[in-house]
Amino acid sequence: MSFSGIWSYRSLVNNPDLSASFDSLRFGAGTLILSEPAPGKIGGSLGGTGWSLSLDGAATDGAPATLKWQGRGMIDNEEWVYDYLGYPVPRWPNGVDQIDTIVGTVIRTVTHSNGQSPAGYTATFYAVRV
Fold first, then answer.
1. What is d(CA 30, CA 2) in angstroms, rounded to the nearest whole number?
2. Pick from 5, 15, 59, 65: most CB atoms within 10 A?
């Protein structure tokens, strides 16, 4: 599977409380643009209004394949750094209108927003091919 292309990205807070509103689970959302500049390499960007991260990482074959990249960017004069680990969702043999999807985890690597967004915070993400 080629990962190059445009994806809709969403990340969610890992909260086991089923009474939490779905809106309260939002961690992030944006447009994920993946490129494969060389075999095994991942590049691109992840961003939205007022922010953008440049991506650099790797894709490895396997069952399942693994994508690992780091996103870096300057947002409001602060460096944002996040690391991502994702896997393509397998296709169901009888799936109807199944869209390529990547699922995984994200970790905030560097504290930002004057300490209000601490390093080490993790969330779950999924990205759906546009």
1. 20
2. 59
Q: Which two tokens stand for residue 90?
A: 């397998």
DSSP label of 25: G
State the pLDDT at residue 1. 83
Retrieve residue 15's tokens: 């909260």
- Which residue range forms the structural domain that includes residue 120? 5-129
Confidence of residue 113 (pLDDT cuts 50, 70, 90): very high
pTM: 0.95
Domain count, the chain: 1
CATH code of the domain containing 110: 2.40.128
CB-CB contact of 112 with 126 (8 Å): no
Query: What is the phi-psi region of residue 27: left when phi exceeds 0, alpha when psi lies from -120 to 50, beta otherwise?
Result: alpha
* pLDDT tens, residue by residue, 77-89: 999 999 999 999 9
Backbone dihedral angles phi then psi of residue 83, each to the nearest 5 degrees:
-115, 145
